[in-house]
Amino acid sequence: MKKIVIALSLILLFTAPLIVSAPFFVHLMIMVLMWTVLGASWNILGGFTGQVSFGHATFLGAGAYTTMILYLKLGIAPWYGIPIGGLVAALIALPIGFICFRLRGPYFALSTLAVAEIIRLVALNWESLTNGPVGLLITTLPDVTFRGRSIDWENKIPFYYIIAIITLGSIVATYIMSRTRLGAYSLAIREDIDSAEAIGINTVQARVAALSLSAFFAGVAGGFYAMYLRYIDPDAVFSIALSIEMVFIAVVGGLTTVAGPLIGAIVLVAFGEIFREIFLVHFKLVGHLIFYGLMMMIVIRYLPEGIWGRLRLRFGSQH
Amino acid sequence: MALLAVKGLTKYFGGLRAVHDLSFDVQTGEILGLIGPNGAGKTTAFNLIAGFIHPTRGEILLDGESIAGMKPYAVTRKGIARTFQIVKPFRKLSVLENVTLAAFLRFPSRGEAESQARQVLERMGLESKISALAVDLTLSEQKRLEIARALATQPKLLLLDEPMGGLNATEIEQASLLVRDICKGGVTIIWVEHVLKAIMNSSNRVVVINQGEKIADAPPEQIVENPDVIAAYLGTKKR
């Protein structure tokens, strides 16, 4: 049963843009998958170790800027730039982790918010590297031939497959983490950090490791975001709103679950987008935030373990 | 050489003198009772030894090696495990997982860690509860889980912080047996307790502290007759 569900999901994941190829829907699916990766990133830290970060846009932005700068200044193609962006984000997470994890609970959460603002202001002012508030723009992506044909970057479908592979990577990483000692230690830290120390867990090291893995995926998603939209500026990739949206997706989907971020992204991003259209057309309002707010209230009140967190027990799944 | 030697241990919290110039030894195979009135500094002394707080002054030697100022996880790796006065289980994890996590310290593979955890849980009489969530246990069971988790790190020295607190008379009797049994199994014990009867029956030696200072260090039968100890607990007669 479980294998069938996984196989069907995989087939659906890789054939979806062939079934519905209208650009709007492909764009919507790309956004859902990108936010799945970002939700999975937040879940690796916030779900497993219970450390609440309000500053995850830092890592998204680090990945986005790395990918952009490598391409524009050094001519390194984005498909190398995206994983390098992830690594840069993971590296940046190390000093941030060693400093901020000296704090606990709400104080840690506030420090992540402060760090995110500092990094945003650095990006805004370091004009020689980032172009400051003007932002960075890619006009053309490099030529790539796939099976003898040149890939058409004006079409959205190639982007869909890139993000589909990244999404798969983030879900597999979450699954692997849930089965390893790092995952087990993370849960111990989430449950009681003093007890975790008392049984010999170096909780700073474990939290930094989780943060770094989490930052890697946020950075990869950020690199993809830069390549897909072809334009970034500090407010677009370092904004607090992005950090908060990652929290929403992870929480609505279900913390510490493997499939939760995907469910959270489908519900919030896809339905949010549909609500945005309805509100724009009928009321001339940007209304999707009302939907986000309502979903958050409903989930916190009735499904504190998240949508998938509740449903998975029905399906007899632990993931 | 003493297993643990505490020398001139001192801790100030701002102007408050929580522990002052405390010195005592623990020999391998002993059960050392640590008692004193409320606020005497027992738990502070524990937290100092376990690395949860750093001493203002003083030395803590385990097998002759200084451990003062080490982080709690490093102290545990050196072979000192502790329990908490107010139990701190991993509430939403199973009993088995609670202890397995501790066993990971000495057994990196999950299979070995789990089988080690099962053995310890059996000794603690919790084998029927292994798949229950820690949060669903009774207080007495949670106290035993707390000890099981500490034992799973295979300590040389076990620090028990009021393992009898909140237990009824029968449970106290069982817990005393358990503590003596752990000691027979080769683990040295320092035991902070308010239930004096249990301490007097089980300890080889008792250290009494009052207002952060040691006032007595003797076998239990001498402690109960020590005038300083009686004064600390009951106060002195006005003359």
Short structural description:
The complex is a heterodimer of chains A (319) and B (239). In chain A, helix 2 crosses helix 12, helix 2 crosses helix 13 and helix 4 packs antiparallel against helix 10.
What labels would you give this structure?
heterodimer; A: 319 residues; mainly alpha; two-stranded antiparallel sheet; 15 helices; B: 239 residues; alpha/beta; six-stranded mixed β-sheet; four-stranded antiparallel β-sheet; 36% helix; globular
Please indicate the count of domains of chain A: 1
Radius of gyration of chain A over alpha carbons? 19 Å
Give me the Rg of chain B, rounded: 18 Å
Query: Globular, elongated, flat, extended or rod-shaped: what is the shape of chain B?
Result: globular
What helical percentage do the residues of chain A reach? Answer: over 70%
Mean pLDDT of chain A: 92
**Number of helices, counting only DSSP H or I runs of 4 residues or more of chain A:** 15
The low-pLDDT segments of chain A are none
Structural class of chain B: alpha/beta
Protein chains sharing the most extensive interface: A-B, 17 and 29 residues
Number of helices of chain B: 9
Number of strands of chain B: 10
Fraction of residues in β-strands of chain B: 15-25%
String of helices and strands of chain A = HHHHHHEEEHHHHEHHHHH
Report how far the terminal alpha carbons of chain A are from each other: 14 Å
In order across it, which strands form the biggest sheet of chain A?
1-4
Number of strands of chain A: 4
Please trace the helix and strand order of chain B, writing H or E for each element.
EEEHEEHEHHHEHEHEEHH
Structure notes:
The complex is a heterodimer of chains A (319) and B (239). Chain A has 319 residues and is mainly alpha-helical. Chain A has 15 helices and 4 strands. In chain A, the strands form 2 sheets. Chain A has a two-stranded antiparallel ribbon. The radius of gyration of chain A is 19 Å and the shape is globular. The two termini of chain A are 14 Å apart. The mean pLDDT of chain A is 92. Chain B has 9 helices and 10 strands. The mean pLDDT of chain B is 93. In chain B, 44% of the residues are buried. Chain B has a 6-stranded mixed beta sheet, sandwiched between helices. A 4-stranded antiparallel beta sheet of chain B has the order 2-1-4-5, covered by helices on one side. The interface between A and B is medium-sized, with 17 and 29 residues.
